[in-house]
Amino acid sequence: MEGLLLAEVGASTVEFDNSGGAPAFKEGHLIAPQVLTPGGGTRVQRSRHLSLNEGRLNRQPTLLSVGCSSARNASELKALLGNSSTKLRAKAKIMSPPGSAGQARRVSLEQAKSRARVELDLSLTNNTCVQGGMLKGLIYLRIRERSKKEASILLGDAKLRVVGFEAIPNGGARYVFYQHTTPLEAAAATLPSIYALPADSQGYVEVKEGPHRIPFAMELPIENSFGSAKGVLTLPSGVVVRYIVMVSVRLRDPRSAKQSIAHFYRQCEIWPRLDPSSTLLPTLRPIQNTTTAPLFMGGAGRVKLTAYLHRLHWVAGQRCYVTLSICNDTKKTIRSVTLTLIRTVTVFKPKPALNADPRDEDPDACQTSTSRKEVAASTLEMGQKSIRGHASAKGWWTGVGPDSEVQLQHHIQIPPDALTMMRGRLLEVEYTLRIS
């Protein structure tokens, strides 16, 4: 199969070998050394064996594979994160994706062993990043000195990944909605300096024993092939939207051929890139709502209230201004106006028993629960009327008297942690404004 694999990436031809009795393929002539140019000459091209090995490992993903089911990724993520103290379960393993034989294997987590051969750590230069920016830091890699009975450890498929996921309490369901992965060699230019020997045919390398310090810079693209960032959320109920940056590497013992995965992660924040010129643009027509209601002891008349918003999107931490039109046909004076911001959180707890087809993940096969909470309020009180002998009076609004109509503008301070989230697999967060 080596010849077929080389031919697949355009590195060689394939020859048919019938000398062994059974037909087989073998590696033919390499194509890489000389390449024809449009002018008829030739130019030298470097051999592609190293990238071939990288390509082979890319077809054998290690963690949180994009093509796997969300349930399997959630199970993997639970094992990788550890418990509430980030401690891994002793001798923890994860299910490796199926290989060429179509069989999946359980692979040990190196950090869950009592005496790990490889230790990893991460230090971030910045823990907050916007899509399109760079996430930078240092990777600390330590290869423990082997004993006389141990073989040298081989490393391969080193990757950096940023993972965003939703999590809900009471069952611990998790859903990965965002992931960006890059080979460590692409993010860390100094990585080859720690190699003791060149990579073998399977892409594994022997790394020098001892501690290593590897700087990295990982770009987070604005357009991502697996989901989009949507910010960070932590609610008192235990509902969270979190992100982690993780370094992982596959390990192989050349004697026993046993494999394991070493990993380490840190929490970070990833936010989407928004264009203020379009996101904060006023709407063509104001967003408005109108209601009428009687007042207690106000007679047979009613109050007509109309509220206008000139924008659909508002930034957390800023003032939200509301234009009000109040028509008071009652016998009472309206002395105050209150704006209340209400957060509505809807949790969708998966119920596999409600799924008609087990092979198809139905997001509506769930149990729904909704909670509402007032997160901010602002009351405008009626000021004093003018008093004889005084040049001014307290307040700036004098209320709405009987049989009169008034327009005014009032504001409410949006909490800095207020964040609207469209429905994902597990949760949805909305904000509504109540005016009374």
From TrEMBL:
Source domain of life: Eukaryota
Domain Arrestin C-terminal-like: 301-435
Family annotation (Pfam families): Arrestin_C
InterPro entries: Arrestin-like_C, Arrestin_C-like, Ig_E-set
Designated name of the protein: Arrestin C-terminal-like domain-containing protein
UniProt organism field: Heliocybe sulcata
Lineage: Eukaryota, Fungi, Dikarya, Basidiomycota, Agaricomycotina
